């Protein structure tokens, strides 16, 4: 199964007290690499993000790489009876003010036109790498 | 920056996965994360010598493994059991790559702060 791969980092260089548990306040990075059209990875990521926020954690970034960059292709027109997971995720990130980034190189390679709605932010892998510092990474 | 282990699991040419995970590795290394790269399962096929005479239209991305030293990626482990299972235990690995037991791989994963599975 190429499902969720979760690893909790053991050191937290900038501990901030969690208002509820008194423990360190975790910041998460989410990495998505699978197509939003082909499986449940976007739905799982969304579910995770909602649960994390509900518990008082913060999400530093949601980064779309490889096939996941298709989410930024606004010209995709889904049949009305199919759930639009990409749009749902974008809406959620906008409401919660979470940085929703996609790899511009991976997107251009797939012919994904630059998103102009402002929901998705074009970024490089270096930005993912820099935002990754001091967060816990969860991969979908 | 952080200690990140990257687990390579994909063969070189079935999908674009191996190529794009190499880009990810170089980007992470470029911002000074300390990386350990682990080749396991079918990913060991990425380390076979390239047939430069092949007429197949494939990008020889494996040449970029030679950049690892430049990017100060010092820990490149290749799962010895995966090599043996594929009849490749005699394979001469690229410079800087070492065959590793499952115990060594476990120890590497245990000391990492983040793990990315490619």
UniProtKB/TrEMBL annotation, chain A:
A Pfam family that the UniProt record links to this protein: DsrE
TM spans (from-to): none
InterPro entries, sorted: DsrEFH-like (IPR027396), Sulphur_relay_DsrE/F-like (IPR003787)
Highest rank taxon of the organism: Bacteria
PANTHER family: PROTEIN YCHN, SULFURTRANSFERASE TUSD
Name under which the protein is recorded: Sulfur reduction protein DsrE
Species in which this protein is naturally found: Alishewanella longhuensis
Automatic annotation (TrEMBL), chain B:
Protein name: Sulfur reduction protein DsrE
Protein family: Belongs to the DsrF/TusC family.
Top-level taxon in the UniProt lineage: Bacteria
């Amino acid at each position: 199964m190429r499902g969720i791969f979760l690893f909790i980092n053991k050191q937290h260089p900038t501990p901030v007290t969690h208002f509820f548990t008194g423990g360190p306040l975790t910041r998460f990075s989410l990495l998505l690499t699978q197509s939003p059209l082909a499986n449940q990875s976007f739905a799982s990521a969304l579910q995770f993000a909602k649960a994390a926020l509900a518990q008082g954690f913060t999400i530093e970034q949601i980064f779309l790489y490889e096939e996941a960059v298709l989410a930024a292709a606004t010209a995709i027109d889904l049949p009305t009876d199919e759930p639009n997971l990409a749009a749902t995720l974008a809406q959620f990130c906008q409401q919660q003010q979470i940085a929703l980034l996609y790899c511009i190189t991976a997107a251009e390679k797939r012919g994904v036109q630059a998103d102009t709605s402002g929901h998705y932010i074009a970024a490089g892998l270096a930005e993912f790498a820099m935002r990754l510092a001091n967060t816990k990474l969860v991969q979908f | 920056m952080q200690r990140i282990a990257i687990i390579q699991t994909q063969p070189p040419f079935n999908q674009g996965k191996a190529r794009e995970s190499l880009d990810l590795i170089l980007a992470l290394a470029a911002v000074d994360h300390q990386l350990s790269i682990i080749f396991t399962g079918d990913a060991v096929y990425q380390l076979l010598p390239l047939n430069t005479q092949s007429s197949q239209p494939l990008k020889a991305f494996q040449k970029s493994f030679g950049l690892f030293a430049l990017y100060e990626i010092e820990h490149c482990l290749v799962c010895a059991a995966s090599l043996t299972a594929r009849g490749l235990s005699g394979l001469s690995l690229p410079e800087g790559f070492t065959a590793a037991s499952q115990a060594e791989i476990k120890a590497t994963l245990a000391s990492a702060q983040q793990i990315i599975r490619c």
